[in-house]
UniProtKB/TrEMBL annotation:
<keyword id="KW-0594">Phospholipid biosynthesis</keyword>
<dbReference type="GO" id="GO:0008654">
    <property type="term" value="P:phospholipid biosynthetic process"/>
</dbReference>
<dbReference type="Pfam" id="PF07994">
    <property type="entry name" value="NAD_binding_5"/>
</dbReference>
<dbReference type="GO" id="GO:0004512">
    <property type="term" value="F:inositol-3-phosphate synthase activity"/>
</dbReference>
<keyword id="KW-0398">Inositol biosynthesis</keyword>
<keyword id="KW-1208">Phospholipid metabolism</keyword>
<keyword id="KW-0443">Lipid metabolism</keyword>
<dbReference type="InterPro" id="IPR036291">
    <property type="entry name" value="NAD(P)-bd_dom_sf"/>
</dbReference>
<keyword id="KW-0520">NAD</keyword>
<feature type="domain" description="Myo-inositol-1-phosphate synthase GAPDH-like">
    <location>
        <begin position="186"/>
        <end position="299"/>
    </location>
</feature>
<dbReference type="GO" id="GO:0006021">
    <property type="term" value="P:inositol biosynthetic process"/>
</dbReference>
<dbReference type="Pfam" id="PF01658">
    <property type="entry name" value="Inos-1-P_synth"/>
</dbReference>
<dbReference type="InterPro" id="IPR013021">
    <property type="entry name" value="Myo-inos-1-P_Synthase_GAPDH"/>
</dbReference>
<keyword id="KW-0413">Isomerase</keyword>
<protein>
    <recommendedName>
        <fullName>inositol-3-phosphate synthase</fullName>
        <ecNumber>5.5.1.4</ecNumber>
    </recommendedName>
</protein>
<dbReference type="GO" id="GO:0005737">
    <property type="term" value="C:cytoplasm"/>
</dbReference>
<dbReference type="InterPro" id="IPR002587">
    <property type="entry name" value="Myo-inos-1-P_Synthase"/>
</dbReference>
Amino acid sequence: MKDLLPMVDPNDVIFDGWDISSMNLADAMARAKVLDVQVQDQLRPYMEKMKPRPGIFDVEFVAANQTDRADNVIRGTKQEQLDQIRADIRQFHASSKVDKVIVLWTANTERFCDVLPGVHDTADNLLSAIANGHKEVSPSTIFAVASILEGCTYINGSPQNTFVPGVLELAEKKKVFIGGDDFKSGQTKFKSVLVDFLVSAGIKPVSMVSYNHLGNNDGKNLSSPLQFRSKEISKSNVVDDMVESNPILYSPQEKPDHCVVIKYVPYVGDSKRAMDEYTSEIMMGGHNTIVVHNTCEDSLLAAPIILDLFILAELCERIEFSISGSKFQQFHTVLSILSFLCKAPLVPPGAPVVNALFKQRSCIVNIMRACIGLAPINHMGIEHKAFYFLARRC
């Protein structure tokens, strides 16, 4: 894609960030046990110099089992935490001399916050709630607000409801882009493709059961019921638009049974095991069952998605378009173009949610084609089916 449009070279990116653990990145890399030891040895001289800035820790939003890592936290009120994050962004921007800053949440899954009237419903109410230290404002929402107030695109890579209505309104007021939610890497990406195929082929999925176990810190955090519920919602909604697209197979309000299980097994570390069973109804009362087993390094699937997200988001910051000769404008604040990379795509209010993977990819490709003056791709192939075109070729 970089051959079509000028895009950020990952080698030109400078990384910085926050973490509730003070461990330098070389030691954190060793603790994670993901990369080959020889690769770790090569990276250590660079990584050991990198130490995270203090982060925001609120045990009300993450699992209590994360407390033992929390030795690098911002003390004080929620307002003081917000002010510190903003100061960190400004300091990094100035010291690194980068052209722009994009903030991306890669931290642990939080529980869903209770969206309350007078607290989360408007930008002003949300800012007041932070100033008053309201307990139902999550750390990820504070990061989002700080990023928006500093004019930096903010992407949520976890499944919790960071983008409460007040955050969306604030982003629109400040004309800052936001995107999310939750990295779409392995099992969910496969599910979106398989179910799209089944429904499109007239095969009716009636039961989907997804089981996962993993032993990294993400799995440890998700062993807590409230944090798991956030992930369960994110994983379960991935097939909704595909089911609704076929009213012949599914009557209104009908959905397949869908169960998601995640278990913490420390021994397997980052090597995530995913097992899925898809049962579908076929002709004459028959059934078709597909069983899939997948083993992968969870972090190694997610890391490239992080790169893709901020590179694509940065490109979107520079795209402007005109409709029928009208004034040039940017995309809506909510970057739904990032849906291809997210389990629970965030879309502008009133816009349809698209989870089907190939439709999501086609959106990106066609927008890029439009930027260089090419027509969108369609699959009619009329030039290969009409006598007129075929005769002209001969």
